[in-house]
Amino acid sequence: MHESGHTLTVFIVISVVLFMLLGIAILVMIDHKARIPGEFNSDPFSITGLRREHPVLSFLTTFILGAVILSLLFEISVAFGEKLGFFVEKKKPELLQELKEHRFSEEMRHFHNVRKNDTVNDGKKPVCFYCHGDYPHSKTRMIRTLLNMHTQFVGCMTCHTNEKKVPEDTYSFAWLNYTGIKVKGPHYGTSLDPDTGFLVKTDDYFSKIVVYADIDGQKTLMEMTEDKPEVREFLKVKDKLTDSDKEAMKKRIHKLVRRKGRFCDRCHAQEDKSYLPFRKLGFSEQRIFDVTNLNIIGIVKKYKNFYLPNLFKKESGSQK
Q1: How far apart are CA 44 and CA 29, in angstroms?
Q2: Rounded CA gap, 213 and 170, in Å?
């Protein structure tokens, strides 16, 4: 490898010298043609011809050769600079490289098609996002891909409000866009386009189904959005809190949270038994039928072992 780099440097030097000599020769011939009188001759390499003051061909040749020579000189400077240690590329910390690989691995193992512009996570977010990230469900391999898909249109507390502390008969549900991004279209996933059979196109990828509960006679939003006073206060000081303070705040935020969310069949059930009132939420007749008659529930219940490929994991090559 070292010998190859040395040979390349020598080759570049020789090329520059040859180009310089060729340029000098051409310029000399053009200059002679401009000085020696004679009949007009269209051959640019002839040393005789009609006298001309600084012919255009001379300027054009000088420009082209000058550009070539400067580019080659730049290559030589870079080559020698790297050899002498002037242009040593700083190595990125191994931790950053590992995080980059981990991020790619996470995207692949969740089967998500991640867009360049992540519209789902634009705007203001619930406080849950700061600790749990984009893909909060990761412990149960069998159903994590299905659960993470729901975070686009279902609020965290819709599934995770603890019914033992806040009874379900006090719940009501609604669409809420708390990102601060203005939209005009219908809520995502509520109806189908009769011409294409696909979901109606919309710009509202931000509204989520959230739960309100009657607490002390007041209709209270259970989602921990950035607009709540206690959340705003926490976000201002979260980087200054001690570990014990963070733990105390974590317990406070999770006081009404159930660890495991409600199972699939609570919502994807017959309409009169479903946890979510799809009709009141504006779902079309066809969409109500679709979401209440999913075969995926049987798969999740019946199959205990759910295998995911390890193709994109760094250590997959050593696994059998």
Answers
A1: 8
A2: 5
* Placement of tokens 């082209």 in the chain: 64
Whether 180 shows a pLDDT value over 70: the answer reads yes
Element (H, E) at 244: helix 243-253
Q: What is the DSSP string of 42-79?
A: --TT-S-S---SS-HHHHHHHHHHHHHHHHHHHHHHHH
In angstroms, rounded to a whole number, what is the distance separating the alpha carbons of residues 102 and 291?
A: 33
CA distances from 166 to 10, 13, 161, 272 (A): 79, 80, 7, 22
Q: Helix 2-35 vs helix 56-84: angle between axes, to the nearest 10 degrees?
A: 160
Cα angle, residue 312 at apex, residues 296 and 110 outer, rounded to 5°:
30
Summarize pLDDT for 71-106 with one digit per residue, the tens: 777 877 777 777 777 766 666 567 667 777 777 676
* pLDDT-derived band at 275, boundaries 50, 70, 90: very high
